[in-house]
Amino acid sequence: MKTLTVTEVARNFSAVMDGLEAEQEEIVLVRNNKPIARLVPEPPAQTALEVLGDLYRTLDDETADRLVSAIKRGRRGKRGTLGELRDPWAS
């Protein structure tokens, strides 16, 4: 985590934003020796396939198989819904 004064950020805003993006490091803004704000980089963008891949790894085998079946039905043009799938986070 990097600490910069508000004045430094104001004078070098574009360079600070470029660094924030490139380094993916938080920046704490300080005014009068007190932290007043935090700049946090956005997480990298993920495709739907990457998000589903992350979800798939958290599912039990039965739910994962049902998800794959629902996706295949959707690709064939049938009206398949994901509503039949069990919520893996529900207790």
Give the strand content: 15-25%
The spatial strand order of the largest sheet comes to 1-2-3
* pLDDT averaged residue by residue: 83
Radius of gyration: 22 Å
Quickly count the domains.
2
Order of helices and strands: EHHEEHH
Q: Calculate the terminal CA-CA distance, rounded to whole Å.
A: 37 Å
Q: Could you estimate the helical fraction of the residues in percent?
A: 40-55%
Question: Helix tally?
Answer: 4
Backbone structural class: alpha+beta
The beta-strand count equals 3
Low-confidence stretches: none
Based on Cα principal axes, name the global outline.
Answer: elongated
The main sheet comes to: 3 strands, mixed
State the gist of this model.
By secondary structure, the protein is an alpha+beta fold. The chain has helices at residues 6-11, 13-23, 48-56, 61-75; strands spanning 2-5, 27-31, 34-39. The protein has four helices and three strands.
Describe, in plain words, how this protein is organized in 3D.
This protein is α+β, with helices and mostly antiparallel strands. It has 2 domains: 2-39, YefM-like fold (3-Layer(aba) Sandwich), CATH 3.40.1620; 45-91, no CATH class. It has 4 helices and 3 strands; from the N terminus they run E-H-H-E-E-H-H. The chain has helices at 6-11, 13-23, 48-56, 61-75; strands spanning 2-5, 27-31, 34-39. Strands 1-2-3 form a 3-stranded mixed sheet. The protein is elongated and about 60 Å long.
